[in-house]
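User: My collaborator and I are trying to settle a disagreement about how two of our proteins should look. Neither of us wants to argue from intuition anymore, so we agreed to look at predicted structures for both before our next call. Could you fold the first one, then the second, and keep them clearly separated?

Assistant: That sounds like a sensible way to settle it. I'll keep them separate. The first protein:
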Amino acid sequence: MKQMNQTTPQGSNKNSSNTSQQGRTVPDELVPSRYALRVGEIEVLVISDGVLTPPAESMATNADPAARAAWLDDRFLSRDAFDWALNEVVVRTGDQTILIDSGLGMEYPDFPRAGQLGLRLKNAGIDLGSVTDVVLTHMHFDHVGGLLVDGVKEQLRPDLRIHVAAAEVKFWASPDFSRTGMPPVLAELARSAAKRFLDEYRDRLLPFEEDGEVAPGVMVTRTGGHTPGHSVVRVESNGDRLMFAGDAIFPVSFDHPEWHNGFEHDPEEATRVRLRLMRELAETGSWLVATHMPFPSIGRVAVAGDFYRWVPTWWDY
């Protein structure tokens, strides 16, 4: 994997500002919000949609509160709420530009630091009209929300292809939140965002059962667990490999894979999925990017006793 020098900050004047595609006024950014690399001959761009701040207990709903607090204390993190990265990926290969997930959009105003994908795509020189394919790891509101922002659909190509697992589409027709730790307000938000997405984009969907080829070297595979149709994307070229794991793996997963995330619809299966994926990553040496790993969320997975450890990449400036 060759990392490409696109980590330049977007701005340096803290008193100036831009207006995002979502209509929010945001200061010029003082830190990088995109990171580029090559996987063989395929270009990959990790883009930050911003930061979510959910309650800390949502990352480990079945954990002993004292153990969860100790994990947070060891990392100098708040016991109440923590910064949770929101990463998307753009893959460019041949004549295809592939967007993997679309971020929060305006779906949850209580997370004002997220929903920046439109602005950051523009700053990266990616026009929405150039996107040929969208891949959805799943249909939670922080993954489809960017496609629901006013004016976005009109900028997209009429022949846009949206790849999503058939099981995911079926699930959101009548979703079951009984095994999640989602509060009612977020469950209703998830339900309404998925319904709006299906109403808006159903005619552009290319559902797949278990696997689908998005482009040569770019495959999407259903894992289930987090949601029934949750999927991961694998990119492979010239012996290099990268996996975008969506919401299958979180920062806490390496120390406590058995801890359930509050947004998981089948927590036990989600645990089995992340252990299986981490084993694959350790065995193959593939790079890992995941939605909620700290930006730029690029690293490898190594064996550590009975479990695994996260080895973040060295930044290439």
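The second protein, kept apart from the first:
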Amino acid sequence: MATFAIGDLQGCHRQFQQLVELIGFNPGRDKLWLVGDIVNRGPDSLPLLRSLMQLGEAVITVLGNHDLHLLRVALEPSRQCPGDTLQPILDAPDKQVLLEWLRRQRLFHVEDEYALVHAGLLPGWTIEQALELAQEVEAVIGGDRFPDFAQNMYGNQPDCWQDGLQGYERWRVIVNAMTRLRVCSPAGKMNFSYKGDPATIPAGFLPWFDAPGRASRDATIVFGHWSALGLHMQRNLIALDTGCLWGGCLTAVRLEDRKLFHLPCA
């Protein structure tokens, strides 16, 4: 059995199919870990969602900001943004089945020494705490309270974690860290306006994974979201968003030996 982690797909179904063939993925034997943002901006989010759902337990995906945006837009279509390519899903006869599948996916997954998240973790969160916080929000997203939370999900405040946070603000910080984080202050204050490469990070901020004393550093964290960072591998870190949507490539890594597979994307 092999476990292949794959970077942000964003509706690039054809490239996903080609990469799966390239790595020799066998759904009866192997696992796929997806870093989230499986939908939007690319042309084929609908067939990609269908393909992933059909793969059943062979796929583990965490939710990205674009995936949560789809769930929000499904409740209020007027919230679509310029550049969104979600309408085919909203018009599909199996829309509800696909959306319910998406709502049941995780924000954070931990297995052995590896952890999977779309964007990142705040410096003070241990792996155990992050898992508990993710499960708290997963219960909201997959439950009856999601429509109310969805109305309050967007926003940049609060921009740091406090143990006393409650309700929508508490859940928003968890979602923002796990699906939108790129850089933060050493103390964990998040900056959501910055999307560039690490060489141009504003003063007072640094990549979330370089925060001094980061409490999650004992696990190897697999993530995406930051296409300007690109492929970035350290002993305890694997970043996999290599910009397939933007003409870069789609990247997979076999976790057992860290062998890389790249599919150039037009």
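Some points you might bring to the call about the second protein. The chain has a mean pLDDT of 97. The chain has eight helices and 13 strands.
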